[in-house]
Design brief:
Elements: E1 5-9, E2 19-27, E3 36-38, E4 45-49, E5 55-58, E6 61-64, E7 68-71, E8 78-81, E9 86-93, H1 97-101, E10 113-115, H2 116-119, H3 128-131, H4 137-151, H5 159-170, H6 176-180, H7 187-198, H8 202-220, H9 226-232, H10 238-249, H11 253-257, H12 263-266
Antiparallel strand pairs: 1-2, 2-9, 3-8, 4-7, 4-9, 5-6, 5-8, 7-10
Helix pairs in contact: 5-8
Length: about 270
C-alpha cells in the first residue's frame, strides 16, 4: 500500500451527530498488490470510488468491490487489496449514524455490502456526482458533504440508543450493566432497538471498542507487554484477551502485531 495518501476532513455541525469524518484515500496502483486486513471498528462506512475499486476476499475468491456502496458493521476481519490507481471518498459514520441516513434495519447489513439501489431505491444515483468527472479531492469531499446533508432522513435516532452508544464510547472499563443503567428501557427493548440502529448488539460493540483501544494503546506504548496492554484495556485475564483478539482479527496477538500493516493506521474506529 505504498504511496497512498490518507486525509480526514471535518464535517459541518449538522452532520456531527451521525458522521465521524469524511476521508479520502488517493494514490497510484501498486506493482505487486498486497492484501491488508480490515478489523472491526464499530462504524459503518460509505465508500465512493472515483478510482479503481479495491478487491475483497470473499469465501476464498477475490472480488472487485462496487463503485458506490455502504459496508455495514463488521464482526470479523476482512481482507482487501488494491486493484489499480486508488481514489476513494469515504464517510465514517458514528455507530448509530448510518441509520440516520438510511433508516432501515442495520442488522441486515452487518458483515456485508449494500448498494445504493438497496439503500435509496428512489434515488440510487444520489452520490454519483462525488465520483463522476474530473475534480479535486476537496471538490469531491464538498460534494459528498452536501449530498449527505440532503440525504438526512429527518427521522431522529432514539435517544436511548444514542445515549448507550456514547456511554460505550466514553465508558472506559465500566461493565455493560453499568452503562445500561442510565437508559430508561428494559434490557430486551435496548437489545432490540440497538441491534436495529447500530447493526450490533451492545455487548459486541463493547468488545470491539475495547479491542480498538488496546490496539491504539499498543501504538502509543510500544514497550508495554501484551499482558500489560490487556490488563490496562479491561480484559479479565490473558485467556480472555487472546480469545477475543483472535475472534475479531483471525490471528493471535503476537502474529497480528508482527505484521507490517498500513490500513490499521488509517482506520482506528475511535473518536
Amino acid at each position: 500500500m505504498e504511496g497512498l495518501s490518507y486525509t480526514e476532513f471535518p464535517v459541518p455541525p449538522e452532520l456531527r451527530e451521525v458522521v465521524r469524518c469524511v476521508w479520502s484515500l488517493e494514490g497510484p496502483g501498486p506493482a505487486h498488490p498486497v492484501p491488508e486486513p480490515i478489523l472491526p471498528d464499530g462504524c459503518a462506512e460509505l465508500i465512493l470510488n472515483h478510482g479503481a475499486p479495491f478487491e475483497q476476499l470473499e469465501q476464498g475468491v477475490w472480488r472487485r468491490q462496487p463503485a458506490c456502496f455502504l459496508h455495514g458493521q463488521i464482526t470479523r476481519v476482512m481482507h482487501l487489496r488494491q486493484n489499480g490507481p486508488c481514489g476513494i471518498i469515504g464517510v465514517r459514520f458514528e455507530p448509530h449514524g448510518a441509520y440516520a441516513l438510511f433508516p432501515t434495519d442495520m442488522a441486515t447489513f452487518t458483515d456485508r455490502k449494500a448498494l445504493m439501489a438497496e439503500l435509496m431505491p428512489s434515488d440510487p444515483a444520489h452520490f454519483a456526482p462525488v465520483i463522476e468527472g474530473p475534480a479535486t479531492v476537496e471538490q469531491r469531499v464538498e460534494r459528498a458533504i452536501g449530498l449527505l446533508v440532503r440525504a438526512m432522513s429527518g427521522a431522529p435516532v432514539e435517544r436511548a440508543v444514542t445515549d448507550l452508544v456514547r456511554a460505550i464510547l466514553t465508558g472506559g472499563d465500566r461493565s455493560l450493566r453499568a452503562l445500561k443503567s442510565g437508559v430508561p428501557l428494559s434490557t430486551r427493548q435496548i437489545e432490540r432497538r440497538f441491534l436495529a440502529v447500530v447493526g450490533l448488539r451492545p455487548k459486541v460493540l463493547v468488545r470491539i471498542i475495547r479491542l480498538r483501544r488496546l490496539i491504539e494503546r499498543a501504538k502509543q506504548e510500544p514497550q508495554a507487554s501484551l499482558t500489560e496492554l490487556a490488563h490496562a484495556s479491561g480484559y479479565y485475564d490473558q485467556a480472555h484477551f487472546n480469545r477475543d483478539f483472535k475472534a475479531f482479527t483471525g490471528r493471535a496477538p503476537k502474529d497480528h502485531f508482527g505484521q507490517d500493516l498500513v490500513f490499521p493506521d488509517y482506520f482506528s474506529g475511535l473518536p
